[in-house]
Every structure is written in structure tokens, then in C-alpha cells.
Amino acid sequence: MLLIETLLPEFDHEIALTQRVFERIPNEALPWKPHQKSMSLGVLATHISTIPHWATLTFTQSEFNIPINEKTSTVTSQSELLVKLDQHSKEARTHLAGKSDAELLAPWSLKYNRQIIFTMPKASFLRKFVFSHLIHHRGQLSVYLRLKEVPIPPMYGASADEKI
Amino acid sequence: MTQINELLATYDRETAITRTLLQRLTNETLSWKPHQKSTSMEGLGRHLAHMFTWGLLSFTQSESDMNARTPMPPTQTVEDILTAFDRNVIAVRSLIAKSSDKNLQEMWSLTHDGQTIMAMSRSNVIYSMILSHMIHHRGQLSVYLRLNEIPVPSIYGPSADEPMTP
After folding, report:
1. Coil vs helix vs strand at B16
2. Which strand (E) or helix (H) includes residue A21?
3. pTM value?
4. How far apart are the two ends of chain A, measured CA to CA in Å?
5. d(C-alpha B126, C-alpha B133), whole Å
6. What is the pLDDT of residues B88-120, one digit of tens each?
7. Residues B126, A160, B84, B72: what is their CA dihedral angle, to the nearest 10 degrees?
8. Cβ-based neighbour number of residue B103 at 10 Å
9. B117 in contact with A at a CB cutoff of 8 Å?
10. Disulfide check for B30: which of A9, A131, B42, B78 has CB 3.0–4.6 Å away?
């Protein structure tokens, strides 16, 4: 079995789940944050919506330098979030589809402030910084939504609000 | 790189991060929950330790009943959670390490009252039912830590408290 045959269905599954969570976000909750050190709900959701773009970068650049003080404009509505997620994930999917094991096992470097943080096979990078990273922040978002009294959809099992 | 090596590398990296978060829990905060509908800190920690038992079933059976797992009783201390987490993480790791790429691709079914409700490869059980599931709840736990003024470690990047660790 090719690596992409396990990666692509997982990608599709996680994006669909993320879309379902985004659909619950009330616009008025976007500026809210649970703690002064926390990201606001809008910043967190914007961050999640751009994570699939990293899959595109993995195949269009051999390395990526994270800018210090990166400024991403925060979305101002749920519909804008859904559009961003859809655009980034569809674009990523076109790059992922049909990739051979050799292409997926080619090394990729992430840099911060021009220093190499790590070099790893593209498949490992996708799993860590795209899939796992997105799931991590979506988990955080689910607590934010709970605190805003928004019903949580089932993710890996039933939520306190809904069965699978 | 074989699929088994890739799986073990991911498994080791992700379980180590989860352990770092669990170590930061305090006995005083175990009963805390952010909302009345939420799972308590203890419940979340216990769930993170217990979900590895899906690996014990799927690597020793070809199909398992949904209720075949032994429930994990509530824990009293952070030490109890860490002990259970370590025991299960090590047991599943040794099953993966003894496996083969071929065995990882074999299907395992989850049944309920004799009906199949889900079928997936063993590698998918580890990636999805265990690791993605764990990462989801670990993300929730990171918010719990923040709300209890416990410093949040670097997970996929820097946190508001600590710089990025690779």
C-alpha cells in the first residue's frame, strides 16, 4: 500500500471534521479568548484554516522559513473561515493526490529565523505539522466552543451534546 | 523508511509530548472542569491513558466488540494517571515493534452486538483511533492547563509560556 493511500483519506476525514466544527462558530464569539495569554477564538480558527496550506508548501518549496513576527489577518466571519479552509484544503489536495512514496519520503526543512529547526521526510512533516497540528488546535477550539455554550459535534466519539 | 518505522517515530514523538503535559497536572486540579458539561482534568487524563487499549485489542484480535475493553477506574493522583499511561504506551509500542508492514495493513473490525460498525487497517487504528484521538484531547488538556495557570509546553510551536522545542 502506498503512503498516499493512507494519508489522503485521513486528510479528507480531518478536513471534513474541521469544517463541521467551523460551521458551529458564532461570529460574535470570534474576539473572545478564555485567558489573557490565549489566542482569541478568531485567531485560533484562522490559524487552523491556514494549516492545510502547509501541505501545499511541502510540495512547492524544498524548505520554509517561518518569518519572525508573522502577521496573518484574522477572519471576521464564519463564512470567511469556511472559504479559507476550503481553498487551502482543495489546493493542498491537488498537490497530495498521486504522490509516490519516493516523493513523500524526500527530505524537507523547516527554518525559523534562517536556522534549520529540523529536516524530515515530507510524509512525516505532513503528519506532524499538517494533520496532528490541525487536530491539536481543533481540540483547543472545541473547549473554546464549549465555554461559549456552542453544541460540540462528535469527533472521535460522542460529545456531551451529540452521539456519533 | 518502512511504514513501521514511520509509525513508531510518530508514536514516540507524540506520546512523549502527551507525557510532558500529563506531568504538569497537579493533584489539586484533577477534579476541575472548565464547564459543567466538560470532562474533568482527571477524566481527560484517564481517557488519554485508556485509549491505548484499542491498540492492545486490534493487534491481538481480528475483530473486537466495542465493550471488550476493561474500563479504567477513576484515578486519585497524577502519579496514577502517569503509571497507567506509561504501562499502556509501552505495551502498545511493543506490539507495533513486533509487527510487520504486512500485518499493519491487515484489517481489524469493531463490532457491537455482532454487527460490524467500523473496519480499518491496524496502522489506521494507531494513527487515527489512538494518535489523532490523543492529540485532539491533548489539545483540550492544553486549554485546561492554561485556565489553571499551569505553563503550557511547546507542542507544535512555541506556547505563550515556552519557546519552540523541535
Report:
1. helix
2. helix A3-22
3. 0.95
4. 29
5. 9
6. 999 999 999 999 989 999 999 999 988 999 999
7. -110
8. 15
9. no
10. B42
This complex has an ipTM of 0.95
Domains of chain B: 3-147 (1.20.120.450)
The residue assigned the cell 512525516 is A124
CB B94 within 8 A of CB A121: no
Contacts of A34 in chain B (CB under 8 A): 34, 143, 146-147
Using the beta-carbon criterion (under 8 Å), do B38 and A132 form an inter-chain contact? no
Decide if A10 touches B, using CB distance below 8 A.
yes
On whether the CB atoms of residues A146 and B35 are closer than 8 A, the answer is yes
Distance of alpha carbon A104 from its chain centroid, rounded? Answer: 19
Say yes or no for a CB contact (<8 Å) between A10 and B128.
Answer: yes
Nearest alpha-carbon partner for A16 in A66, A82, A64: A82
Which pLDDT tens digit goes with each residue over B14-52? 999 999 999 999 999 999 999 999 999 999 999 999 999
Alpha-helical regions (H) of chain B: 3-23, 41-50, 53-58, 78-97, 101-105, 122-124, 133-147
Q: Which three cell numbers stand for residue B149?
A: 495557570
Is A136 within 8 Å of B156 when comparing Cβ atoms?
yes
CA distance B83 to chain A (A): 24
* Contact between A163 and A153 (Cβ < 8 Å): no
Which among B9, B4, B64, B144 is positioned nearest to A146, based on CA atoms?
B144
**E strand or H helix that includes residue A5:** helix A3-22
- For position B44, what pLDDT does the model report? 97
Whether B139 sits inside 8 A of A135 (CB atoms) is yes
Could you give phi then psi for residue A33, rounded to 5 degrees? -135, 145
Chain centre to alpha carbon of residue A88: 9
User: What does the block give as the cell for B145?
Assistant: 492547563
Select from B6, B138, B143 the Cβ nearest to the Cβ of A124.
B6
